[in-house]
Amino acid sequence: MKEMIKDKEQDVHHQDSVGVSESGLQHKWYHNLKYLAAGIIFGIIFVKAEVISWFRIQEMFRLQSFHMYGIIGSAVLVGMISVFLIKKFNIKTMYGEPITLAPKKFNKGQIYGGLIFGFGWAITGACPGPLFAQIGTGALAVSVTLLSAIAGTWVYGYFRDQLPH
Questions:
Q1: CA 37 to chain CA centroid, nearest Å
Q2: Please, what's the b/e burial string for 72-91 (b: 16 or more CB within 10 A of its CB; e: otherwise)?
Q3: Helix (H, G, I), strand (E, B), or coil: what is residue 10?
Q4: What is the pLDDT of residues 114-165, one digit of tens each?
Q5: Cβ atoms of residues 97 and 91 within 8 Å
Q6: Degrees (nearest 5) of the Cα angle 75, 107, 88?
């Protein structure tokens, strides 16, 4: 009986592991410095491209400018091409592990989550990626948005089993 419950729990939380390397490789702490460097470069690009600008985000939600739609559309296009190439050429990670992409099933919870995310983005002028870049540029008021995002994630985790998935 305990095994059945564990298997069911793994099925319910299957998407928790999507994108997470299940490799047994162990690395020293400094191995992660490359991710810190990539994050800093990514943040600089966000600042220079005005992706973190509250005014640009408001222009997007008011349909007054193509700037943000162009950036988001470019990212979607790059993602589509990348997934196509990964599948077509069976590309592996730099450690030789296969890249697996789990199929996603649509459910109504995605609509609710997307609406909540969009409303939060429109109200605060920030989404999770640029939050850190905004704080790094000195917009310390965005710390409230960061703490709210963390609290929202905790609330979701707490009530996950009762929510429509």
A1: 18
A2: eeeeeeeeeeeeeeeeeeee
A3: helix
A4: 998 888 888 888 888 788 888 888 888 889 999 998 998 999 899 999 877 6
A5: no
A6: 45
- Cα separations (Å) of 80 from 39, 77, 111? 22, 5, 22
The secondary structure of residue 66, as a DSSP letter, is S
Which tens digits make up the pLDDT trace of 47-68?
A: 999 988 888 988 998 999 999 9
Burial code of 5-34, b = ≥16 C-beta within 10 A, e = fewer? eeeeeeeeeeeeeeeeeeeeeeeeeeeeee
What is the distance between the alpha carbons of residues 28 and 31, in angstroms, rounded to a whole number?
6
Q: Taking a C-beta distance cutoff of 8 angstroms, is the pair 25, 95 a contact?
A: yes
